[in-house]
């Protein structure tokens, strides 16, 4: 089985390197600058105090494959979709927010799309050099909830590679749950320039709660059945990752475009489609425009 991981950021490199330890036909699609650095040194992952190096095949263009794993930011999808239209591969998408699966299912053959949600922690130290910051959970599933043969196979490969993964029959609910949690944590930490633990109590906690509750009201209107209460899950993640910097805060610090539109923006748009006001989301989206 040929697997191509598209995206050489923290998550893409982590997935690629883990799979490359147990599979023979893994490649990583990277920009020229990142590819040159990886080809000189290989991929490096920091596990605790140990640096693990591994050579992996690098592609500068998206190749044909049995599986394409999309480990890129939401705003890169417009450039990737035309390339994916050339092939008939299975597509595993693991973007933050509610936008990616809907967009991919609309612009590509919906039957090609499989979704993934994960809380595995990783951060880029430098190009091709990633720190694994937390095990977390990973769930993969079909949009229709069926336990298909292809999902069984890809989940088996993730587990064999040491990425603890389970099948979900409620992918839509899992995506909404994570999307709402991200909407509450990411922009609040980014605006405040604080680690996740700053949201445990006080004014930042209150702001995160109000944003979360708006997302919950939107989800209810769309009759989404989430596996857990989003605010309870938000508090759990804040506590467990108190020393971590959210991905959005990392983007702000590095001067990169953020995913505020794909996360909070999508919740606000979906709310307005159902005549649900989302003033807390609207406000923080406006505040984030300087970084977006």
Automatic annotation (TrEMBL):
Source organism of this protein record: Marine Group III euryarchaeote CG-Bathy1
Domain Ketopantoate reductase N-terminal positions: 3-144
Superkingdom field: Archaea
Domain Ketopantoate reductase C-terminal: 170-286
Keyword NADP in annotation: yes
UniProtKB keywords: Coenzyme A biosynthesis, NADP, Oxidoreductase
Pathway entry: Cofactor biosynthesis; coenzyme A biosynthesis
Listed Pfam families: ApbA, ApbA_C
Database matches in PANTHER family: 2-DEHYDROPANTOATE 2-REDUCTASE, 2-DEHYDROPANTOATE 2-REDUCTASE-RELATED
GO MF entries: 2-dehydropantoate 2-reductase activity; NADP binding
Family of the protein in this entry: Belongs to the ketopantoate reductase family.
Cited function: Catalyzes the NADPH-dependent reduction of ketopantoate into pantoic acid.
EC assignment: 1.1.1.169
InterPro entries, per the entry: 6-PGluconate_DH-like_C_sf, 6PGD_dom2, ApbA, Ketopantoate_reductase, KPA_reductase, KPR_N, NAD(P)-bd_dom_sf
One biological process term in Gene Ontology: coenzyme A biosynthetic process
Protein name as catalogued: 2-dehydropantoate 2-reductase
Catalytic activity entry: (R)-pantoate + NADP(+) = 2-dehydropantoate + NADPH + H(+); (R)-pantoate + NAD(+) = 2-dehydropantoate + NADH + H(+)
Root EC class: oxidoreductase
A cellular-component GO term for this protein: cytoplasm
């Amino acid at each position: 089985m040929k697997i191509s991981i598209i995206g050489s950021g923290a998550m893409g490199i982590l997935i690629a390197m883990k799979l490359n330890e147990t599979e023979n036909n893994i490649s990583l699609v990277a920009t020229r600058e990142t590819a040159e650095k990886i080809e000189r040194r290989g991929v490096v992952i920091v596990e605790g105090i140990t640096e693990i190096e591994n050579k992996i095949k690098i592609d500068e263009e998206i190749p044909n494959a049995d599986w394409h794993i999309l480990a890129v930011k939401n705003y890169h999808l417009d450039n990737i979709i035309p390339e994916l239209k050339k092939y008939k591969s299975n597509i595993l998408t693991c973007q933050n927010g509610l936008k990616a699966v809907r967009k991919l299912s609309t612009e590509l053959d919906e039957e090609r799309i499989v979704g993934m949600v994960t809380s595995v922690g990783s951060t880029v130290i430098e190009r091709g050099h990633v720190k694994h910051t937390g095990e977390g959970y990973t769930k993969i599933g079909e949009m229709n909830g069926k336990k298909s043969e292809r999902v069984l196979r890809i989940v088996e490969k993730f587990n064999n590679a040491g990425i603890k993964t389970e099948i979900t029959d409620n992918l839509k609910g899992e995506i909404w749950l994570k999307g709402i949690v991200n909407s509450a944590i990411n922009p609040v930490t980014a605006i405040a320039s604080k680690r996740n633990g700053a949201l445990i109590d006080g004014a930042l906690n209150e702001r995160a709660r109000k944003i979360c509750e708006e997302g919950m009201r939107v989800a209810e209107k769309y009759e989404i059945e989430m596996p857990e209460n989003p605010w309870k899950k938000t508090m759990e993640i804040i506590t467990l990752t108190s020393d971590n910097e959210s991905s959005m805060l990392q983007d702000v610090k590095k001067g990169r475009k953020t995913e505020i539109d794909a996360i909070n923006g999508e919740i606000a748009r979906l709310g307005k489609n159902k005549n649900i006001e989302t003033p807390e989301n609207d406000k923080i989206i406006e505040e984030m425009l300087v970084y977006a």
